[in-house]
Amino acid sequence: EPCIDTLFGESDNATCPVKDDEYCEEPFPKNQIHKDMCTRREVMSLPVFCEYSKDGCKETPLWKNLKKHIEECEYRPVECNECQEKTPLNNLANHKETECSFRVVVCDHCSQNIPHCQMQSHLDHDCTEYPLNCPNGCENVTLPRNEMESHLHSCPKRSIPCGYRSIGCEFFGVITEVEKHQVKATDQHLMLALSFSGQTSNENKALHTEIEESKKEIEELKLTIQQLHQDNQRLKEEITPLVKSVTKDMKKKLVTLTERLINLERMVEHQPKREVLEKQEQAISSLKDDIKVSQEQITQLERAGPQGGRSQALVPQDVKNQLKTNEKQMAIQDIRLAELDLRFQVLETASYDGILMWKIRDYYRRKQEAKSGRTLSLYSQPFYTSRTGYKMCARVYLNGDGMGKGTHLSLFFVVMRGEYDALLPWPFQQKVSLMLLDQETFRRHVCDTFQPDTTSSSFKRPTTEMNVATGCPLFISHSVLETKTYLNDDTIFIKVKVDSTNIPVP
């Protein structure tokens, strides 16, 4: 038993704790102590006080029933789930009604339900019906908080500035004081007006001087620009014919060298002697080098354009600009080709039955880009209800948007401007289903279906490339999405189905 362990401690012998016992004078070993079951039964049948007797419990259960009684005792302390304070079980209901600091009470002024511990803060800051005295000292004026702001704008004792504040008067006071001040301070206001007028006049003179100087500088710049333009035009007229002439000569030289090369190769075919062949091969090699040099020169001239091989310092700005324009046009053509290629790719994947099947690869990389703010959302390829029907697409925020940011995938539906909108009924009224496909069992697809709100701007006829997206910010949580059911090989599949029935065909 615990009392024996306390008596002996780490020793093997102990002295009887009963004092003046003639039979227990000597220390006794621990192995001489034996359990007395008879005495145990007697002790277990003795009545004892409850450990919560100091809190009011009058019960005296038998020792063997004490544990069960304590578990059921109505005086045992329990914790209030609102304020976390402990109170006897039989007082818990009264505590929640009259003592708990988080008990709900009704505000006497606005009748709102407020936690008791927040009532004072509610009265001091939030209660719209709490009566307040005018801070300007209006006599017998007590108004609800929600009317006080309006009163302050019309309060007869509010402090207002003097009407001559704009010219330097710093007087503030109530309306009657300001009126008296304006009558008494006429001389002061007149002096302020004169001073302000003089200051304004000086500022106007300074501005006029600055304007005149700016006009002179502008005229000088115009003359300089005109002179530079004339110089550039003259240089352009001089260089352009030169470039054309040199290019023409180089092309002629290239043709001549090519003809000579062909003739020499033919001669080689009819003169098989070794010495002759070696000479002809050397000549051919030399001609090929000349042709290569000529081609490089022509390429450089064509790249240089109207510069004609002249030093960059002598090339007019107009010519440089023309070259830059040509380079930009070539770049624009490349971009247009890329756009056309992308457009063909989109057309190849477009559907015309009102169903979009969208495969999103590299999920984790794209989600990280959304977290970093680099690419917040992705748009799908367009799809249509028919060849001449509505044009639509889907928009997804892999890291969530609005209420779902950081915790959910947000999925939206977008109505786009199409080629045949003028022939279709508006607003858009077709039922829409947004789905995330199950890649494991193919039965537990996540789906949300809605009927468009015809009063929403999201479903009116588009006046820009696309309307405002509408859908589900909390479409699916990341914890559910990022399982093998919906995410496989770092890829997810989104399906959007639009009811294409009852749409008139143009």
TrEMBL record:
Zinc fingers (TRAF-type), renumbered ranges: 69-120, 121-169
Q: Which UniProt keywords apply?
A: Apoptosis, Coiled coil, Cytoplasm, Isopeptide bond, Metal-binding, Repeat, Ubl conjugation, Zinc, Zinc-finger
* Coiled-coil positions: 204-304
Q: Care to name a GO molecular-function term for this sequence? A: tumor necrosis factor receptor binding
What SMART domains does the record point to? Answer: MATH
Q: InterPro entries from the entry?
A: MATH/TRAF_dom, TNF_rcpt-assoc_TRAF_met, TRAF-like, TRAF1-6_MATH_dom, Znf_RING/FYVE/PHD, Znf_SIAH, Znf_TRAF
User: Which residues does the UniProt record annotate as the domain MATH?
Assistant: 353-498
Q: Which Pfam families match?
A: TRAF-mep_MATH (PF21355), zf-TRAF (PF02176)
**What's a GO biological-process term for it?**
apoptotic process
This protein's major location comes to cytoplasm
Record localization = Cytoplasm
Domain TRAF-type residue range list: 69-120, 121-169
Q: Which residues form the SIAH-type domain?
A: 45-101
Q: Name one GO cellular component term.
A: cytoplasm
Transmembrane residues, as ranges? none
Xref: PANTHER family: RING-TYPE DOMAIN-CONTAINING PROTEIN, TNF RECEPTOR ASSOCIATED FACTOR
What this protein is called in its record is: TNF receptor-associated factor 3
Instruction: Please give the organism.
Output: Magallana gigas
